[in-house]
Amino acid sequence: MEEPSQLKRAIIDSSAGAISGGISRTVTSPLDVIKIRFQVQLEPTTSWALLRKDLVVTAPSKYTGMFQASKDILREEGLKGFWRGNVPALLMVMPYTAIQFTVLHKLKTIASGSSKTENHTNLSPYLSYVSGALAGCAATVGSYPFDLLRTILASQGEPKVNETN
């Protein structure tokens, strides 16, 4: 079997990375939505408020636990609510994983002297670790503009202010 050209291999790796990143992000989106809801909630969860005597709670928490938050999101927004914001997240994750897969394969090819994946498994743990770390760095730098855009979009809107006076 003949080896694919470097460009073809890079396209295969990029596509595999983007697709796998997109699938994993979409599957885990409900957990991310719940996590973000807790992060932006101004009121502390009830259990935390009970532990702090000096904390003045002016309004009850909307979300107090993972299962309660899941039920509320499902009731108020339907199933689609769990995938709110998934498209901007995909625009960040897919380039990240595409770059990571491509750079990792290229680095392991250089380190092993062969582009065959079976030869990459024979790399020392040190070289494998360094390859993965460098691929992660390249992916972070390459996808940073998308992360910045997602952060700007996510932070727009009316700021939530807890007015107690």
Can you put this structure into words, describing what you see?
This protein has 165 residues and is mainly α. It contains six helices and no strands. It has helices at residues 6-40, 46-51, 66-77, 86-112, 117-120, 125-155. The mean pLDDT is 82. It is a multi-pass membrane protein.
Task: Give a short overview.
The chain is mainly α and about 160 residues long. The protein is about 70% helix and about 0% strand. The protein has one domain.
Helix-strand layout with pairing:
Elements: H1 6-40, H2 46-51, H3 66-77, H4 86-112, H5 117-120, H6 125-155
Count of alpha/pi helices: 6
**Which structural class do you get from the secondary structure elements?**
mainly alpha
How many structural domains does the protein architecture include? 1
Main β sheet profile: none
Shape descriptor: elongated
Q: What's the alpha carbon Rg, rounded to whole Å? A: 22 Å
Q: Approximately how much helix is present in the residues?
A: 55-70%
Q: What is the oligomer described by this structure? A: single chain
Number of strands: 0
Q: What integer is the average pLDDT?
A: 82
Strand content: under 5%
- Spans of at least 5 consecutive residues whose pLDDT stays below 50 are none
**What is the straight-line distance between the termini?**
74 Å
Helix and strand sequence: HHHHHH
